[in-house]
């Protein structure tokens, strides 16, 4: 029994060990003055700052602003990616029209478009949302496009033999069949959306996480910068959990390789 | 080669009617000037070597391939059962059966059809968890629920073990007796054809090489069709000497009788 317990816990314990040691070392280095506060704040200071920022409402308010930018940008980008992917895959003319443009678009780093977006859309919310939308469109499009190609022709044939029309085919056969690939694209899109959020908010913002970071930089408040880094990390984690949950639900039909 | 079933007796218009039907893939003529009629409620077995064009003919009758303006009459209510059950793995069993059915009664109808094939206990199962026999019974239910005038079965039992296959024969005959669709079953199993069909057609290189109506009752076929079996095997290029294994299998009881 003790043996079972130790084998259960030991890998767990060893995985926590290095981060905890790292934090301790960091804290120690800060306390002894090895790392000055304007280089990097101590973990304890970061924690205190975070609690203050939460209590004052500064962190939640700005987080909400950033969250909406991501949500809106993702919503637009993912919807466009899905629609374009379907159009390109399901009609030859659509393919000829859409796919070359998407391939050209792929060669241009979206970040490089930021100046152009600012010229077009000013410095409000629009260029930020547009940047995120534009960047997340492609992984969704590409993965869906490939996913639809991978849908079993024989299933499509069978469904057609039962008189399903084009719309029903898309809803019941093609999209579900391409869903595993689409989810891969969605995972990329979520990661990219957070990267683009950071970039868009660094360029110019009067609210949001990036605004906090910019301000903190001007006042050399490394504690606030670290708090924001942690929030970015949490956003990424939340996005990952979301996708995992969706995957577990949507792909429940797949036999599990490893039964729990 | 035009076919009259009961010369002298006025027949209702056949459900399926092909006249001089040809189909080519590139330079290859796959179906060559084919005539075929199937009467309402008739059970036809189509035999032929692999590559003789059986599936191509079935796809034409299923309306899956365009007939290119040739003289093809097929009923509007058709249903296909493929060798691989072709269930949508992301839909539960009853939803596969209800696929494309209009209206609120879809679920009830699907459940009734599944009950008929003895799968009431598997309504909510995922298709990938079904056995081969269960998957084919689901496919039968999915065909049946559409109340087809024409049921097309493309080697539906080829992948099943011998015992399951015999049970499926019985099930198919019972369903046919209860609903009386016209049936075309593609098979490469002479005994299956004899056990099930009113009429056996042998396809060879895109032409009908041999065709015979079986008058004996299904229950008492094993002995009386011995000669037909020899001729069918002959048409398929398998010479049988009297008393050889291939000859005696039909003469003895086991397979075909157990199916009745
Ligand atoms: N879509 C297709 N394109 C080209 N050739 C085909 C196609 N479908 C079938 N064929 C050819 O037609 C012939 C008959 O095929 P098929 O009808 O599937 O035979 P069977 O079902 O009797 O085994 C084969 O030689 C096959 O290669
Ligand atoms: Mg075939």
Descriptive report:
The complex is a heterodimer of chains A (260) and B (260). Chain A is mainly α and 260 residues long. Chain A contains 10 helices and no strands. Chain A starts with a helix and ends in a 10-residue tail after the last helix. Chain B has 10 helices and 9 strands. In chain B, β1 and β2 form a beta hairpin. The longest helix of chain B is centred in the middle third of the chain and has 18 residues. Helices cover 34% and strands 22% of the residues of chain B. In chain B, the strands form 2 sheets. A 6-stranded mixed beta sheet of chain B has the order 5-6-7-3-8-9, with helices on both faces. In chain B, strands 2-1-4 form a 3-stranded antiparallel beta sheet, covered by helices on one side. Chain B is an alpha/beta fold and 260 residues long. Bound molecules: adenosine-5'-diphosphate and magnesium ion (MG). Adenosine-5'-diphosphate binds next to α1 of chain B.
Please specify the SSE layout and strand pairing.
The complex is a heterodimer of chains A (260) and B (260).
Chain A: H1 2-31, H2 43-55, H3 58-90, H4 92-107, H5 114-121, H6 125-149, H7 153-161, H8 166-203, H9 209-218, H10 222-250
Helix pairs in contact in A: 2-10, 3-4, 3-6, 3-8, 3-9, 5-6, 6-8, 8-9, 8-10, 9-10
Chain B: E1 16-25, E2 28-38, E3 43-48, H1 54-61, E4 72-73, E5 78-81, H2 93-97, H3 106-116, H4 132-144, E6 150-154, H5 162-179, E7 182-187, H6 190-196, E8 199-204, E9 207-213, H7 221-224, H8 226-235, H9 245-251, H10 254-259
Parallel strand pairs in B: 3-7, 3-8, 5-6, 6-7
Antiparallel strand pairs in B: 1-2, 1-4, 8-9
Helix pairs in contact in B: 3-4, 4-5
The structure holds adenosine-5'-diphosphate and magnesium ion (MG).
Magnesium ion is lined by residues 54-55, 154 of chain B.
């Amino acid at each position: 029994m003790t043996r079972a317990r130790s084998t259960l816990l030991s890998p767990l314990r060893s995985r926590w060990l290095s981060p905890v040691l790292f934090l301790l070392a960091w804290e120690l280095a800060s306390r002894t003055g090895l790392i000055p506060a304007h280089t990097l704040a101590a973990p304890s200071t970061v924690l205190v700052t975070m609690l203050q920022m939460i209590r004052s409402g500064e962190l939640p308010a700005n987080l909400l602003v950033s969250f909406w930018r991501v949500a809106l940008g993702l919503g637009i980008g993912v919807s466009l990616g899905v629609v374009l992917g379907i159009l390109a895959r399901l009609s030859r003319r659509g393919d000829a029209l859409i796919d070359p443009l998407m391939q050209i678009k792929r060669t241009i780093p979206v970040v490089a478009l930021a100046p152009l977006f600012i010229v077009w859309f000013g410095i409000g919310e629009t260029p930020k949302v547009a940047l995120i939308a534009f960047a997340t469109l492609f992984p969704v499009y590409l993965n869906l496009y490939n996913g639809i190609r991978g849908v079993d022709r024989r299933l499509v044939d069978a469904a057609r033999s039962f008189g399903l029309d084009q719309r029903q085919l898309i809803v019941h056969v093609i999209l579900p069949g391409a869903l595993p690939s689409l989810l891969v694209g969605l995972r990329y899109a979520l990661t990219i959306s957070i990267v683009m959020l950071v970039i868009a908010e660094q360029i110019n913002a009067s609210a949001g996480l990036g605004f906090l970071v910019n301000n903190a930089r001007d006042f050399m408040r490394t504690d606030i910068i670290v708090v924001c880094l942690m929030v970015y990390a949490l956003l990424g984690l939340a996005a990952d959990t979301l996708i995992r949950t969706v995957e577990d639900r949507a792909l429940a039909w797949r036999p599990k390789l490893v039964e729990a | 080669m035009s076919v009259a079933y009961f010369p002298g007796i006025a027949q209702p218009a056949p459900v399926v009617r092909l006249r001089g039907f040809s189909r080519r893939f590139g330079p290859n003529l796959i179906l060559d000037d084919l005539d075929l009629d199937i009467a309402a409620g008739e059970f036809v077995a189509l035999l032929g070597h692999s590559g003789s064009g059986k599936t191509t003919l079935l796809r034409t009758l299923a309306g899956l391939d365009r007939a290119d303006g040739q003289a093809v009459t097929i009923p509007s209510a058709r249903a296909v059962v493929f060798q691989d059950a072709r269930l949508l793995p992301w839909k539960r069993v009853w939803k596969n059966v209800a696929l494309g059915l209009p209206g609120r009664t879809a679920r009830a109808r699907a459940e009734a059809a599944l009950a008929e094939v003895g799968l009431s206990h598997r309504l909510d199962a995922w298709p990938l968890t079904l056995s081969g026999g269960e998957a084919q019974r689901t496919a039968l239910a999915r065909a049946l629920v559409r109340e087809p005038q024409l049921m097309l079965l493309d080697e539906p039992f080829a992948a099943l073990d011998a015992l399951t296959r015999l049970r499926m024969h019985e099930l198919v005959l019972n369903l046919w007796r209860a609903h009386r669709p016209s049936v075309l079953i593609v098979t490469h199993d002479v005994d299956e054809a004899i056990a099930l069909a009113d009429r056996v057609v042998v396809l060879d290189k895109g032409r009908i090489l041999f065709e015979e109506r079986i008058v004996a009752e299904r229950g008492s076929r094993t002995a009386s069709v011995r000669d037909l079996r020899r001729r069918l095997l002959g048409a398929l290029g398998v010479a049988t000497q009297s008393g050889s294994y291939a000859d005696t299998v039909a003469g003895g009881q086991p397979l075909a009788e157990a199916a009745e």
